[in-house]
Amino acid sequence: MLQYEEKxxxxxxxxxxxxxxxISTLKTLRSKLETRHELKTRTEEYRQWQKxxxxxxxAVMVGKTLxxxxxxxxxxxxxxxxxxxxxxxxxxxxxxxxRIVIF
Length: 103
Fold this sequence. Notes:
There is one protein chain. By secondary structure, this protein is mostly helical. It has one domain (2-102). It is 80% helix and 0% strand. It contains three helices and no strands. 0% of the residues are buried.
């Protein structure tokens, strides 16, 4: 009878330890998923901001003032279409060529 009680106690301790480990793993997983979601949200907010900022940046890079840029932009311009986006790398290359020609 004593051996049976000892085996049951050991088995109950083992199961308790497994459950505790499982709970801790689930908590860790949840926190990692929340962190990943927050990062994706911040990244998307930044990308949306950048889409609105890039046309102004490129206008200034080619020598326009913000007033000139805003005067030429239609009020209903929608740059959320990827086909309408300005390629930042191409703009940088073009600007570098422009600088080389001037100097």
